Amino acid sequence: MASYHWDALMSTAVPLQTQYADRDDVFVGVSVTMYYVEGDSEMAVQPDVFAAFDTAFDPRREVWKTWEKGKLADFVLEMTTMRRKTRDDVYKPILYRRLGVTEYWQYDPAGDYLDPPLKGRRLNPNGEYEPIPLVTSPNGVRYGTSEVLGLQLCLTDTASASSTPPPGSSFSPTRTMSDSARSAMSSIAS
Questions:
Q1: What are phi and psi of 54, to 5 degrees?
Q2: In 10 A of CB 125, how many CB atoms?
Q3: Enclosing H/E stretch for 44
Q4: CA 85/CA 87 separation, integer angstroms
Q5: DSSP state letters, 66-91
Q6: Residue 57 and residue 45 in contact, taking contact as beta carbons nearer than 8 Å
Q7: Pairs from 64-72 (Cβ < 8 Å, separation ≥ 24)
Q8: What is the per-residue pLDDT across 127-179, written as a single tens digit (0 to 9) for each?
Q9: pLDDT digits (tens, 9 = 90+) for 125-138
Q10: What is the distance between the alpha carbons of residues 36 and 157, in angstroms, rounded to a whole number?
Q11: Cα distance between residue 58 and residue 187, in whole Å
């Protein structure tokens, strides 16, 4: 894994883990193998970052079994590259839609092919993905709103996906954050 890929992964996962650290019914995972067909170890996916609501997960376990949890994830973010383009643009949206992942986001930290490098999709009432629009704030930061997370995912000058707007921006997360989460997010974003 390239260092920029790792940096982007952590700049997204750590604030999300901090955001939901006080909730027993939310699990934020990083590269956890998620099996979706009981008895078939080939039927698995390993999202880069995901959040699952209304479920508990023991982080000491190394795998996620959808037949035990009742679902896959509610939110998935994949760090994509040109090498993974077909898998992330074609196959994973079909799989995640079929498995009921409400939001599927992609982030291209190298800027290899996604323009802009952040892209989101949300399931509509018909069970199809629709694009999540990116908006530009008055100070020039591009972001998309995750209804699942109740947060904005931002593109900053350093080209990283973040679950909170950078300091000084005129918008804020839509979900109320605890003081400890806000403090952790501010230190990570700065």
A1: 60, 40
A2: 5
A3: strand 44-45
A4: 6
A5: HHHHSSS-SEEEEE--GGGHHIIIII
A6: no
A7: 64/29, 64/32, 64/33, 64/34, 64/35, 65/35, 65/38, 66/34, 66/35, 66/36, 66/99, 67/38, 71/99, 71/100, 72/34, 72/36, 72/45, 72/96, 72/99, 72/100, 72/101
A8: 999 999 999 888 888 889 999 998 888 876 444 445 554 443 322 222 233 34
A9: 999 999 999 998 88
A10: 37
A11: 27
CA-wise closest residue to 57 among 26, 94, 21, 96: 26
DSSP letter, residue 106: E
Burial-class residue 45 by CB neighbours within 10 Å (0-12, 13-18, 19+).
buried
**Amino acid letter at 162?**
S
Specify the DSSP class assigned to residue 165.
Answer: P
Q: How far apart are CA 51 and CA 121, in angstroms?
A: 15
- In the block, tokens 């006080």 appear at 22
Side chain identity at residue 16, one-letter code = L
